[in-house]
Each structure stands twice: as C-alpha cells, then as structure tokens.
Amino acid sequence: RILMADEDTLYGHDFPSEIIVDKLKGKEGTSVDLTVFRKSENRTFNVKVKRGIVPLKSVDAFYMLTKDMGYIKVNRFAESTYKEFKDALGKLQKRGARKLVLDLRDNPGGYLGMAEEMADEFLEDGKLILFTKNKKGKISKSFATDEGSFEDKPIYVLINERSASASEIVAGALQDNDIGTIVGRRSFG
After folding, report:
1. 40-68 burial string, b = 16+ CB within 10 Å, else e?
2. Sequence-separated contacts (24+) of 11-18 with Cβ below 8 Å
3. What residue spans define the domains of the chain?
C-alpha cells in the first residue's frame, strides 16, 4: 500500500483515484519518493521510482496450442494493436501455425482502424469489412485491400458478452464473409 508520495500523504484520506494518480505522475525521467507499507511483512519502507512511459500492450499472449495451431489474445484495439498483432502472427507462422485462435474475449474495443487492418489479414481483396451509416443516412464502406498473411487458413475467434466495439467488427467481418468460426457467448452489442 502506498502511504506517501513526495511527502504527500495518500493513505487515510478519501481521495478519488484521479488525485492519487496525479501525485504519482510527472515528467518522464523525474523521480517520486514513495513510502510503502507491505502488509505481509508488517513493515514500512521508502523507494524512489523513476517516472517513464508505461506502454499499454494490446497483445497479452501468443503461443502455439498444437504443432500447427497458434493462439493470440488481444485485450484492446489501441494505436499499436495492429503492429503487435502482426508481429505475434508472424512469429507463430514461423513456428508452424497454419490455424489460429484469436481471443477477443473481454476486449472492450477501441480504434476502428486497427480492427479493419486486423480483419484485412484474413480477408481476400475486395471483401467487405464494415459499412457505417451516419445521421444523414450516408453509407461508408470499408473493404479488404491488402493480401493478408492468413487468408484461406482456419481461424477461430473467441468472444463473450464483454467483447465490444472493434472486437465485434473483427468477428462480424469474418462471420459475414464466411471466414472462420466464431466461438463463445453473444457479444456486447
């Protein structure tokens, strides 16, 4: 438990988490002195922490399930998601993956563009990924454009009731184009 940050008491007050985070955040490269209580040892100690950029990774895990089936868990669709996904997929293919389990369970979504790029990896050129309709009724369509590295290979997409937004775009694009198998519970939307 963090008791103090740079002489500011954090424990014992009813601070909202935003205030506590503000006390810990600062310019990259600067330090913050923390006073910490470790309950398991019943002791208090001080530690100096250097501030830095904390990357939020989108790919939680990737590994081989069998000699020819890979697994990738994507937890969000952020700015770096497509690159992380492509890197993981490439490594799995080098290990022999010819089938893939794409786990989008508990993925709340995020950047639509990342979902479109991911879906494009599995769809032939010209296949519809997504269409949207704005308030004025104008329809926009997004199509697969690049030759994907996993076209014509078996894919299984895992979803659940907490798979939303961009996760549903990927699963829906594959389902609508009869690519792969969607497994799990009904998604959020």
Report:
1. eeeeeeeeeeeeeeeeeebbeebeeeeee
2. 11/37
3. 2-50, 59-184
CB atoms within 10 A of CB 148: 20
pLDDT of residue 15: 80
Q: Which CATH number fits domain 59-184: 3.40.50.1820, 3.50.40.10, 3.90.226.10, 2.60.60.20?
A: 3.90.226.10
- Specify whether the CB–CB gap between 119 and 89 falls below 8 A: no
Provide the pLDDT for residue 10.
85
Q: How many CA atoms lie within 13 A of 16 on its CB side?
A: 3
Q: In this structure, is the dihedral angle defined by the CA atoms of residues 151, 179, 73 and 61, taken in order, positive or negative?
A: negative
**Sign of torsion over alpha carbons 48, 51, 52, 53:** positive
Residues of the chain with pLDDT under 50: none
pLDDT of residue 105: 98
Distances in Å between the Cα of 10 and the Cα atoms of 15, 40, 125, 168 are: 7, 20, 55, 40
Q: Please report the sign of the dihedral spanned by the C-alpha atoms of residue 76, residue 65, residue 156, residue 113.
A: positive
